[in-house]
Design a protein that fits this description.
Blueprint: H1 2-17, E1 25-27, H2 30-45, H3 49-52, H4 68-73, E2 76-81, E3 91-96, E4 101-106, H5 112-118, E5 123-124, E6 134-135, H6 136-159, E7 164-170, H7 172-186, E8 193-197, H8 205-214, E9 217-222, E10 243-246, E11 259-262, H9 286-289, E12 290-291, E13 293-294
Parallel strand pairs: 4-7, 7-8, 8-9, 9-10
Antiparallel strand pairs: 1-11, 2-3, 3-4, 5-6, 10-11, 12-13
Helix pairs in contact: 6-7
InterPro entries: AB_hydrolase_fold (IPR029058), AB_hydrolase_lip/est (IPR051299), Fungal_lipase-type (IPR002921), Mono/diacylglycerol_lipase_N (IPR005592)
Domain Fungal lipase-type: 103-233
Catalytic activity: feruloyl-polysaccharide + H2O = ferulate + polysaccharide
């Protein structure tokens, strides 16, 4: 594969770019663990067709059983989106009256392997700050649904102005969620909280610094998950900070001591430094699925890339 060859040829340049950050780490508290374990369930629900194609007022559910706390909270769908753009951006807006939150959730890709093979990682100016560049595909995925999402969020917030706004996603959904949260804050939703699980890099240093400075960012990686190592540092991409690095094994209950908080756009003490630093191990996709839950369990076997459009 050309992309695999490119990774191998880029390794030396990547390592030359990546100066490790000072060792700044801490473990999380049990209350933080409970919070993180809860919000990932909304990201997991974004993979379920019953949620991203739901009728307004439907309950958020996960046929794979990986969002029990969300189901218990009685969260309901306000708006869903899928099959309306060339990027096939999919997800939903839900209201959680139990936790006083509006949740904007983005679905990840059905085939991460195919995405890795086809990715080009072109930069694009998102218009958020001077010198800022975003990954074009991720940014366009947000922009293609932005107008309708903003309209629906405005309605929801007008009805529940004291509710928090939470943006979530796993994998490619986390990439879109990261840029969406940054843009929403830029547009006045300044207290938006982001939970990004297994996100690839989405920004150059200027944009990553801008998003980091907005605060309320929780970006998670897991052991040697290859997706957060893309795009490569040598391509001009870095991560937002901090990183919440899950060190627990695959398919295991995560304890508070198994999540380390690491600072910096490039920190070799976490996911970036596993294996050959910043070179993704494309055999390690098992680590990509497990973020407190099996985050993408609702994909299911044989699920089509897109749901069928209704007949005209």
């Amino acid at each position: 594969m050309l992309f695999s060859l490119f990774i191998a040829l880029s390794a030396a340049a990547t390592l030359g770019h990546a100066a490790p950050s000072p060792v700044q780490r801490r473990d999380i508290s049990t209350s933080e663990l409970a919070q993180f374990s809860f919000w990932v369930q909304y990201a997991a629900a974004a993979y379920c067709p019953t949620d991203y194609t739901a009728e307004p007022g439907s309950k958020v559910t996960c046929w794979a059983g990986n969002c029990p706390q969300v189901e218990q909270a009685g969260a309901t769908i306000l708006y869903d989106f899928s099959d309306t753009t060339i990027t096939d951006t999919a997800g939903y807006i839900a209201v959680d009256n139990t936790n006083k939150a509006h949740v904007l959730a983005f679905r990840g890709s059905y085939s991460v392997r195919n995405w890795v093979s086809d990715a080009t990682f072109i930069h694009k100016d998102p218009g958020l700050c001077d010198g800022c560049k975003a990954e074009a595909g991720f940014w366009d995925s947000w922009v293609n649904v932005r107008d309708d999402v903003l309209e629906q969020l405005d309605k929801a917030v007008s009805q529940n102005p004291d509710y928090q706004l939470v943006v979530v996603g796993h994998s490619l959904g986390a990439a879109v969620a990261t840029l969406a949260a940054a843009d929403l804050r830029h547009r006045g939703y300044s207290s938006t909280t982001l939970y990004a699980f297994a996100a690839p890099r989405v920004a150059n240093s200027a944009l990553a610094s801008y998003i980091t400075a907005q605060n309320n960012n929780y970006r998670f990686t897991h052991t040697n998950d290859p997706v957060p190592k893309l795009p490569l540092l040598s391509m001009g991409y870095v991560h937002i900070s901090p990183e919440y690095w899950i060190t627990a094994p695959d398919n295991a209950t995560v304890s508070a001591s198994e999540v380390e908080v690491l600072q910096g756009e490039v920190n070799l003490n976490g996911n970036t430094g596993t294996g050959i630093p910043d070179v993704p191990d494309l055999t390690a996709f098992a680590a990509h699925h497990w973020y407190f839950e099996k985050a993408d369990a609702c994909i299911g076997p044989g699920l089509p890339f897109k749901r069928s459009l209704p007949s005209q």
